[in-house]
Amino acid sequence: MFAGYDFDVIQRSLGYLFREGMVFTVTLTLIAMTGGIVFGTLLAMMRLSALKPVSMLAGAYVNLMRSVPLVLVIFWFFFLVPYIGAWVIGAGEPIRVGAFWSAVITFTMFEAAYYCEIMRAGIQSIARGQVWSGYALGLNYWQTMGHIVLPQAFRNMVPVLLTQTIILFQDTSLVYVISATDFLGAAAKVANRDYRLVEMYTFVAVVYFVVSYSLSLLVVRLQDRIAVIR
Amino acid sequence: MNYNWHWKVLLETEPGGTGTYLHYLLVGLAWTLATALAAWVIALSIGALVGTVRTTNARWAVRVGNLYVEIFRNIPLIVQMFLWFFVVPELLPEMLGDWIKQMPPPWGSYLPAVLCLGIFTSVRVAEQVRAGINSLPRGQRMAGIAMGLTQPQAYRYVILPQAFRIVLPPLTSEFMNIIKNSSVALTIGLLELTGRARAMQEFSFRVFEAFTAATVIYLLTNLVVVLAMRALEKKVSVPGLIAAGTGQQAGH
Q1: pLDDT tens by residue, B17-68
Q2: Which of A131, A154, B26, B183 sits between 20 and 30 A of A68, alpha carbons compared?
Q3: Looking at residue B174, which CATH number applies to its domain?
Q4: Is B67 on the interface with A (CB under 8 A)?
């Protein structure tokens, strides 16, 4: 069945696949995760704000991001970021942004909407008395959030946040559409150069499976360990 | 930002000569929906079956179900798309593989896209169905067995009719996901809505008009789906339950 296939092509390109491709994928995932969780938590606090315009603004952003395909969002930011950059630094012409930074901004902004919904559920799962006792102690809003609510909300939501990060790790492969050299992009370049599509794409699928599945097993174990006993 | 908007481009004729750009995008929407609906049929049938099987006490069947779910959940959608498009036809018997590879343009991408999306989503449907069945009180199954029903009968008459109505709300969001995820099919050459917006941007150089139009069309489609599903949920909701189903927190 495998006569005529050349699996050596994988071994020959391992260095390129992992040193270029996987490094891109993992760096992008980690930066977007960090940025997404920070921005997502701020969005969640905005959505839960008593100020109507603030909560509506955050709600509109989250719903917009969740209603549009990620591929379309990637295209949007790929073309939009140079204009925003020019506007920020006051340049007359759209600035040049590489595929990597374009992808970082896209995934941070997009995933923030999903992390926001997770953090919102986390914040809402905290007993109201916790907030009242914070205020009773004389803490202000930011202190109550920072010292009392968010640490608990975060702890409750760590497994879901990590599950979302595994999805993010898989979704970063969509940067293929802006020709970035992530793990899939690197494999696609080798596959097309050597005309070894079957071998390369099968290998990519196996690697993604092994990484995602191992991470999901770790999340399950972590879930058992950090669960708060009530 | 100094971008000169030029909305009239939507009424200009696209280079293929089939009509205006707006028409071109709407045909894209039709392809998006045709892909999503066909894939949804596959997702629902396999998902309901696998989800149900995973709640039974047939151990080998549960294992096979788990394996199926883990495989299709842990490989990115675009990679699965490539597997169906580039790899599967090569591994099939030569005649069948050649037949697939020689299908005329939209169908050669449409068929793999539908299979891929259908199976990708079936895994998520299976998880929802399993959660729905497990959310029923144990007493329901026991009462069924105590009345002399066999296990298949208990599923058919007691458990599934309730479970399917409970999982409807989470299935709505899966249906919206399948519409959004169908955009990944552009990577194997299917000109659905996002693919056509990109093509329009390449032909007309009107980047933001093309993507804004596509975004608005997606938002309107979502609105229609939400309203339709809400009406359906109201009609089939189980009387006496506060709310039903468990919303999924992580997602695409």
Answers
A1: 788 999 999 999 999 999 999 999 999 999 999 999 999 988 999 999 999 9
A2: A154
A3: 1.10.3720.10
A4: no
DSSP string covering B17-33: SSSBHHHHHHHHHHHHH
The residue to which tokens 């809505």 are assigned: B193
Is the confidence at residue B5, as pLDDT, over 80? yes
Chain A residues within an 8 Å CB radius of B91 = 1, 198
- The answer to the question of residue B65 being in a domain is yes
For residues B248 and A2, the model is more confident at A2
Give residue B117's domain range. Answer: 26-236
Q: Is the pLDDT of residue B249 over 70?
A: no
- Decide if B50 is inside a domain: yes
Residue of A nearest to B225 (CA): A67
Q: How many domains does chain B have?
A: 1
CB contact under 8 A, B71 and A209: yes
Cβ of A118 and B250 within 8 Å?
A: yes
Question: Does B18 map to a domain?
Answer: no
CB atoms inside a 10 Å sphere around CB A179: 11
Q: Contact B78/B184 with Cβ under 8 angstroms? A: yes
- Distance from the Cα of B48 to chain A's closest Cα (Å) equals 23
Concatenate the DSSP letters of all residues of chain A into one string: --TT--THHHHHHHHIIIIIIIHHHHHHHHHHHHHHHHHHHHHHHHHT-SSHHHHHHHHHHHHHHHHS-HHHHHHHHHHHHHHHHHHHHT-SSPPP--HHHHHHHHHHHHHHHHHHHHHHHHHHTS-HHHHHHHHHTT--HHHIIIIIIHHHHHHHHHHHHHHHHHHHHHHGGGGGGGT--SHHHHHHHHHHHHT-HHHHHHHHHHHHHHHHHHHHHHHHHHHHHHPPP-
> What is the average per-residue pLDDT within B218-246?
80
Contact A72 B211 (CB under 8 A): yes
Q: Which domains can be identified in chain A, with CATH numbers?
A: 8-226 (1.10.3720.10)
Q: What does the pLDDT read at residue A228?
A: 67
Number of residues that this document lists for chain B? 252
* Rounded mean pLDDT, A69-84: 92
- Judged by a CB distance cut-off of 8 A, whether residue A3 touches chain B is no
For chains A and B, count residue pairs whose Cβ atoms are closer than 8 Å.
Answer: 119
pLDDT tens for A12-26 read: 888 888 999 999 999
Nearest alpha-carbon partner for B182 in B86, B105, B252:
B252
Q: How high is the ipTM of this complex?
A: 0.91
What global pTM score does this model have? 0.90
